[in-house]
DNA sequence: CTGATCTACAACCATTTGGTTGTATGTTAG
DNA sequence: CTAACATACAACCAAATGGTTGTAGATCAG
């Protein structure tokens, strides 16, 4: 059962953890693997030239960032991706880009002169 | 003049640096500030409860991640944002999400039975 | 039951990170 | 010219990161 997939807005600390988790090539690859299909931690670990414990730690970082969840199945721990969080991170970056776009649009307005439909004079007779 | 805005594909190290730079609340705010309007490093620094040198370091991290550039103007160093890199990071996350979407679409295909237009038998007479 | 497998976690280590202070250098204002 | 300002950079420190090995507990196969 999937609970709490995209609940509230992220806190600054959560965004820190999300981008921090994405700032490592191995972790991005683990995320990619888990998006392509659920796998056990040991199954994932076999793909990388590092110890099982190291991969385990990387999965834990992704988990604290809410990018993946783990579900125990017998003696294995299955890693599920959480694409909703990835999507929200992408939208967050879009929002940053929009800030810039809006600024450029405003500059464009200034350069092309005040639009005639706007009346900002204070001394207009009623 | 703006050069090399969105040249080649990013290397893994560059993507590490981009997400790493975004993984800090102060740096995201500096980025936001510079998207809203160019500012000097010292102008930016006045917004934060830390030393000028600390802010200088944060700007340097954003710069190594290609998210901002600096341009010297007199005795000041003006920080320009590079929205193209932000945009490419967002598209990168979209691509991860697409991996998942494609997988889900394939699972849907399996559940609804093989589509009749696909012929995968090996023993078809010519 | 026994042995192999999967996971968890602790302890340790080297490097990086995020902050500080201090010093030096260039630039502008007056 | 001189003083104030903006920057650069080095040295230092504590904490986090990314890796290792080792130990121990569950669970499954035979």
Structure write-up:
Chains A, B: This is Helix-turn-helix transcriptional regulator. Chains A, B: Residues 7-101 form the HTH arsR-type domain. 2 copies of one chain form a homodimer. With 126 residues, chain A is mainly alpha-helical. Chain A has a domain at 12-82: Arc Repressor Mutant, subunit A (Orthogonal Bundle). Chain A is 56% helix and 11% strand. The first copy, chain A, has 5 helices and 3 strands, in the order ααβααββα. The first copy, chain A, has helices at residues 12-22, 25-36, 41-45, 52-64, 83-111; strands spanning 39-40, 68-73, 76-81. A 3-stranded antiparallel sheet of chain A has the order 1-3-2. In chain A, α1 runs antiparallel to α4 and α2 (25-36) packs across α4 (52-64). The longest helix of chain A has 29 residues, at 83-111. The radius of gyration of chain A is 23 Å and the shape is elongated. The model of chain A is unreliable at 119-126 (pLDDT under 50). The A-B interface holds A 12-13, 15-20, 22-25, 28, 31-32, 35-37, 81, 83, 86-87, 89-91, 93-94, 96-97, 99-101, 103 and B 12-13, 15-20, 22-25, 28, 31-32, 35-37, 81, 83, 86-87, 89-91, 93-94, 96-97, 99-101, 103. Chain A binds a DNA duplex (30 and 30 nucleotides) through α4.
């Amino acid at each position: 059962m999937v609970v709490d997939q995209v609940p509230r807005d992220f806190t600054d600390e959560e965004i820190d953890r999300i981008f921090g988790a994405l700032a490592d090539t191995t972790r991005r690859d683990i995320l990619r693997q888990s998006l392509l299909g659920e796998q056990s931690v040991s199954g994932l670990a076999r793909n990388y030239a590092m110890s099982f414990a190291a991969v385990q730690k990387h999965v834990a970082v992704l988990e604290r960032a809410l990018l993946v969840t783990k579900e125990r199945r017998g003696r294995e721990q299955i890693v599920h991706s959480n694409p909703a969080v990835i999507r929200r991170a992408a939208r967050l970056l879009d929002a940053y880009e929009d800030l810039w776009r809006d600024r450029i649009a405003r500059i464009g307005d200034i350069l092309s002169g005040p639009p005639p439909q706007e009346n900002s004079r204070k001394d207009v007779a009623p």
